[in-house]
Input
Amino acid sequence: MCGKDEHVKWSILLGRVFGVEVRLHVTFLLLLGFFGWAAWKATGTLSGALAGLAFHLALFGCVLLHEFGHVLMAKRFGIRTKDVTLLPIGGVARLESTGNSPKQELLIALAGPAVNLVIAAFAFGWWWLGPAAQSGFNYETLQGSFPLVLMAANLFLLGFNLLPAFPMDGGRVLRALLSWNGNRVWATQVASNVGRVMAVLFAFAGLFLVNQPMLLFIALFVWIGATQENQSVTTDSYLAGVPVRKTMLTEFRLVSPFHTLEEVSGWVLAGFQHDFPVVAQGEVLGLILRDDLFTALREKGPETLARDVMRKEFVVATPEEPIDRVLRRAQATPGMPMTIPVLSGGILVGLVTAENVGEYVMMAAALRDGRR
Ligand SMILES: [Zn+2]
Output
């Protein structure tokens, strides 16, 4: 799977591979504990428990390799990856973008499942060339010789990820194929609806056909993923190519480097503005963000000066630049403020804020719906 959700909270940094952070979600450790316990209960021995644990670790190794299939293919197209997180339900690679063309999206989406196909082929070769005494695979108990179990698991991962539903890779394959000659918003809506229908089928099957509560989890996961993807693409479509000046705030208060935090917090309470540009002699020196303000009030007191709290690293934009490009530029660096001063000939003429962009999208959506 690959997506762009916020899973970084509650995750442990394992290390970096190809410059990409690999994280483990804490619930994943609970799951490993559960698998170990289940294997111990089934076999009644410590070695049985360890073997069960080793198998699940190998399985999640395969999930990690699958994610790096996406990461490395994206890298070929110059698309960076923020991090890869292992969740109990699978892996999530947060790519900067899902591809700059349908062909790129298709290749990036297929690269993950392709890794599972290769591992399955190797596992089969391992079993084939292995000692003749190796046992087969029992589909009832899902047990048997390790290579065959590994092969079956990877074929399952391959099939599961190719289901044509967001946020599975198959959903992206479907969207890439549907948008081959143009309309990405329409393609996303279709793929998203297929995902939601599939989620309902999963839930139905989980409740009435097979007694598998896991299917309900997957149904929920697919439903949320399909809905999110549709919203994010629709939002992108409203913002694509729109000049910054149409979405920026033009009435806002400036702060001098020598204003105190007490004064600034008074303005936060009195008005709607959350973030303030710090300006001296016409030059933007920094930004005061509301969260920084509260932290500094607590830790340094109300007499602290704006210049001691302001962020000095921020993205700037020009009025004619497309807003989608500016937002991508700000998102590319972790921790960069999403409040963006707009300069024309070095003079501050506007301020892009997340709330204002959100309002622009709502207004554009209302206008588009109104004209139908
Ligand atoms: Zn994937």
The chain is about 55% helix and 15% strand. Residues 142 and 149 are 7 Å apart (CA to CA).
